[in-house]
Amino acid sequence: MWSILTVMTGLMLADVILVEASLSFLGLGDPNRASWGRMASDAQQYLRVAWWLALFPGIAIVIAEVGVNLVVDCWKRK
Questions:
Q1: Which letter does DSSP use for residue 9 in this model?
Q2: Distance (Å, whole) CA 5 – CA 69
Q3: 14-73 tens-digit pLDDT
Q4: Are 63 and 5 in contact (CB under 8 A)?
Q5: How far apart are CA 76 and CA 78, in angstroms?
Q6: Hey, how many other C-beta atoms are within 10 angstroms of the C-beta on 8?
Q7: For the whole model, what pTM was predicted?
Q8: Which residue in 27, 47, 48, 46 sits closest to 38, CA to CA?
Q9: In this structure, are residues 25 and 72 in contact, taking their beta carbons and an 8 Å threshold?
Q10: I need a labelling partner for 9 at 20 to 30 A (CA). Which of 1, 37, 64, 76 fits?
Q11: Domains of the chain, residue spans
């Protein structure tokens, strides 16, 4: 029972991170809060001269997603 609950919670947490970043990227997030999606969206106009402004928020999203999934997977195997 607990293994199913932890796996589902971890998957939902990863989905929440991705949905929030996607909505912020599209401009549908809270403009008063910092978000990786908003950082990537704001960096679009500088891609030719400062490509790293969009790269680092994208890497942070990937690390958060993989990190949540790895923690849940390790927790599940205990």
A1: H
A2: 14
A3: 899 999 999 999 999 888 899 999 999 999 999 999 999 999 999 999 999 999 988 888
A4: no
A5: 6
A6: 11
A7: 0.83
A8: 27
A9: no
A10: 37
A11: 2-76
